[in-house]
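Subject: for your reference before the review

Hello V.,

The reviewers asked for a structural picture of the protein, and I figured it would be easier to keep everything in one thread rather than splitting it across files. Below is the amino acid sequence we used in the manuscript, unchanged from the supplementary table.
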Amino acid sequence: MRLPPGARPVKLSQEGPDTLFVRWSHGHESRYPVRALRLACRCAQCVDEWTGEPRLAPDSVPADVRPRSIEPVGLYGLQVDWSDGHNTGIFTFETLAELCECSECRAGART
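And here is what came back from the structure prediction:
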């Protein structure tokens, strides 16, 4: 999804054990598998800053990883404290939008 200028999450909630729900200020709704979101972390611990190569081994992330807390970072992102102890990554709103896999966003990605 491409974010309209100024778009931001207005509601965050856990939907069951495996899904994070985000309602955006422009009305779009996104649902993220939480483990996939954890694996998508782009912080320097998870992705090499020089090469862009992943540092995070997927098998090192427990299948039942969950957000313990989610805090806003300025007007541009969210910081997640994960149950596996990881808490240094910031998910910018743009990154979250890119990770949306709803049918509307998948259809837009194919065009």
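For the response letter, the relevant points are probably these. The longest helix spans residues 103-110. The mean pLDDT is 93.

Happy to draft the paragraph if you're swamped.

O.
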